[in-house]
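Journal club prep — side note

Before the paper discussion, L.F. wants everyone to see what a predicted structure for a comparable chain looks like in token form. Sequence:
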Amino acid sequence: MGMEAFAERARLELRATGETARKRSVETNRDLTPPEAQIATMASEGLTNSEIGTRLFISAHTVEYHLRKVFTKLEINSRWALRDSLKSDGVLTSGR
């Protein structure tokens, strides 16, 4: 399908910014991406999707998308479970 060229281009663009693509494996299946972790942390602090979107200059719909992925990865289904799950996974520090 020609996806190798797109993957190579993305890899080069990431390298140019100093970032690297993370390797996907069974061990990293629950790992949150930096945007997911940031949004999850803000949601666990009680911010609404609209408030998070405003702070990050993204739509509330995009926030919802990331939170759905977070909920799936952490195997939770509510914001109530989010804070405890983030603490146990080491995403949140004890100060929050």
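L.F.'s comment for the group: DSSP finds five helices and no strands in the chain. Keep this in mind when we get to the figures.
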